[in-house]
Structures are given as C-alpha cells and as structure tokens.
Specification:
By secondary structure, this protein is α/β, with parallel strands linked by helices. It contains eleven helices and twelve strands.
C-alpha cells in the first residue's frame, strides 16, 4: 500500500458572480481531506464566488510551504502552526481533532517504554504534531530520522531504524506486517490532559481581508456538512487519491479524522489547542504565542 502522499494540482469550481477570488489551497490527498474538500472543489455547493488552485501534498511538505508563505489557505499540523501564528490564522472548520486517533510508536522487536530514549526513531516530520507528542512523552528521545510517513514501516522492517512514529492509515495496517505497538501517544495525551488530540487544522493568511477569511470558513463548513449529508458523493475523489488503500481502510480513515470538530472547533476543540500550545511553550519547543490564533 503506497498511502496518500501523492501530489497533484486541480482547479475547483464555483458559481458565477462579480466577486470571484482565486485561493491557493493546500491539503493532503488523504481520505479525510479529500472528503471535506470534495464538495467545494467540484461545484456541489455554493462557493460564494471563490475559485481554487489546489496543491495536494503530504502534511510535512505543506508545513514547509506554509513556512515559505506560499499558500493562501492550507492544512497544517498544529505543531507547525504554533511557529506560524504571525502569518496565519486558524479557521473554525476543517480541523482534525478527536479521541483514540493519535500517532503510534511502533517497532519490529519488543521494546519497553524505558528503552525508547535510546532508540533510533523514524518520524514523519520535525513539525508534525506526532513529533511534538513524542517529544512531550520522551523528551530525551533525540535520535530521530525524518522521512515521509508512508516509508516509515519499511524503514523499521529493513532495520534502518529501531522504531517509527506512524500516522494516518498506517495505524490500521501495521500489525499485519508483524509490527508491534510500543505506545499510543494519543492515549498518552488524553490521559495527561483529558482533552481531544489536536492533529491538524486549516489555516488562512492573516493578511487577507476579514471578509474573505469568513467567506472561506463558511464555504469550508458548507463543504463538510455536504459531505456528511451525502457520504457517497466524495467517494470517487477519495478513491482517486487514495492509491492502493483498501476501501475498508479508506472509510476507517475518514471516520477517525472527520467529526464534529471538523465542522466547528467549538469550546472544547479550542481548549485542546490552547493546551497543546501551552505544553509546547512550557517545554521550550515554541515561543510564547501573542496573537489570537482563532478566526
């Protein structure tokens, strides 16, 4: 299974009016993102005049493009966003938060938690929330190797690394390859904070007008609500970008990462994000955030 790390450019559709605005939009080709963006990109809802130049890339590549301010709106890991609050603001819609959906630290050999600090660990990117949670749980585990998330399992199996931090659909398939769970870092976070896990959100450039920010947020929410009301509608777009992922895993992926927090962060979602940033500040991983991060 190749996973969802392909890249492509597509154009969205919108209704015709005199206020069309072209948005450079970045998100991953993973099922959860394709599910929530499908309706707005393919003319199934009113986009209020917005059109889209779309960049479909893995999350760490999107993180890097955000650091370069290349995109107007993008999916971003919350760890990366903590470094980019001066450039971007967080939308109310589109986030991936939840329970029992966090990253897993896995290995081929059996290791104890006391072994983790000495292991060579593959991570899906320095600025992923997964790496932040690993740093929170094991601050002395510093022997890390960055690689695309879909390559991590093979790196463990081939002996290039002792362990790996897996995200996305790999959490459903790693045991089939003889790999073992060392720790569920999402479970660690939930026990520590009693809050859902903030994995990724959709952010928009601060420099854009308030009217445009609010419009995009409305359109995105409308797209997600359409997807929930018409779950079969996005299936072709999801399958097109899921590569060799089985349909069962594809649906599990969507169910895990798209929920009520995706429609609107709400009070509990915002509390979880603030907790994540507070923990990162306490550990010295990020500087103190002065800006209002929420739209």
């Amino acid at each position: 299974m190749k996973g969802c790390n392909a890249s492509s450019i597509i154009m969205g559709k919108s209704n015709n009016n005199n206020e069309q605005s072209s948005i450079k939009l970045g998100f991953s080709p993973c099922p959860n993102d394709c599910f929530i963006f499908d309706a707005m990109l393919h003319g199934k809802i009113d986009t209020e005049g917005l059109t889209f130049e779309t960049f479909m890339l893995d999350v760490e590549t999107l993180n890097q493009k955000a650091f370069a301010a290349d995109l107007d709106v993008t999916k971003l890991s919350y760890h990366a966003y903590a470094h980019l609050t001066k450039k971007y603001q967080l939308l109310n819609a589109g986030s991936a938060l939840g329970n029992a959906c966090g990253p897993l630290l896995i290995s081929l050999k059996s290791f104890l938690l006391s072994d983790v600090n000495r292991l060579k660990i593959a991570i899906p990117g320095k600025y992923t929330t997964a790496n932040f949670l690993l740093s929170l749980a094991f601050p002395e585990a510093i022997n890390k190797v960055e690689m695309i998330f879909s390559e991590i399992e093979e790196a463990i199996l081939s002996g290039k690394v002792d362990a790996g931090l897996i995200i996305h659909e790999n959490r459903f398939t790693f045991e089939q390859k003889g790999l073992k769970k060392i720790i569920d870092l999402g479970d660690y976070w939930e026990k520590l904070t009693e809050a859902p896990i903030p994995l990724g959100g959709i952010v928009i450039k601060r420099e854009l007008s308030e009217q445009l920010k609010l419009k995009f947020d409305r359109v995105l929410r409308r797209s997600i609500e359409y997807a929930f009301a018409n779950p079969e509608s996005s299936i072709n777009f999801v399958k097109e970008n899921a590569q060799e992922m089985s349909e069962d895993v594809m649906y599990k992926h969507i169910d895990l990462y798209v929920n009520n927090y995706s429609v609107d962060l709400g009070v509990e979602g915002k509390r979880a994000i603030r907790l994540l940033f507070d923990k990162a500040e306490d550990l010295g991983i990020i500087n103190k955030i002065e800006e209002d991060v929420f739209l």
